[in-house]
Each structure stands twice: as C-alpha cells, then as structure tokens.
Amino acid sequence: MLYEAMLLFAVVFISGWLFSTLLQQRHALYLRHAQQAWLFFVVGIYFVWFWTHGGQTLAMKTWRIRLVTADGNAIRLWHAIIRYLLAWMWVLPGLALAWALDAKAWMLALIPMGNVALWALTAYLDPQRQFLHDRLIGTRVVSAADSAEPAASPKVV
User: Between 107 and 48, where is the model more confident?
Assistant: First the structure.
C-alpha cells in the first residue's frame, strides 16, 4: 500500500494542479469539496482502469500480484468500481467517527488508524485470508508469478 501511495502521489499531484490551474483556484478552501470529488474520481479511474486492463496496478506489477474474480477470471468494470468504493471502508468510517467526535490532535490520527487496523483484522475472520471488501465483491488477489513463464536460463554443465 505504501508503494501504491507513492505512485498515486504523482497522479493526485498532477490532477490537483490541473484542477486548480484550470479553475483559477487561488485559495485552498475555494472549491475544496469540488477538488476532493475530482481527486476521488481520478483515483477511482486509476484503479478501475488498471484492474480491468490486466488486473494489476503499477505497484501490483512490481509485487507480482493480480486481481481476479473468485473463479480466476478477469475482473469486470462493475466489480472494479464496487471494489474501489468498498476499499474506501479502510479509512472512511474512521474519518467520519473522528469528525463526529470532533477529534483533536493525536485522536484525529489514532481513530482512522484504528479503523485501518480493524479492517485489516477482518482477513483473519475469513478462511482464505481475504479482506472484507474482496469477500463482499467476489474478488481475490493472487500471485501473478505463478502464471508467468520464467525466462529460459542457460544450462550449467
């Protein structure tokens, strides 16, 4: 997730720059909610595009993992969109709770981090160790290295 976040930084940076340049955003709070919706949309396009075109984001290619349906087929558009929305459950409930409790200082970080930890622990409730969003939508992450043919190496005599 950290490597994916590093790659997404460039996508979000360029998208945010385009948004603020094209709409003449001169103050950070001007059109803030519109920019947040725009970035949500752009990040969604990033994930949905890569998941439906090969099953791998750039970071997933590096780690040699692939997203497939439960029966091993390529993921379809609606599955990718719903998976993207469900994946936001890693952070949104924690952020909403922090906002509802008017959290300050460290609690503003601890509550969302607790949400991430609880969501990650849901994998231990599943017999196949899948995260809850994958179980709900019927997808799974598999090793892409198993399906790739290893490069032919010269025989050592």
Answer: 48
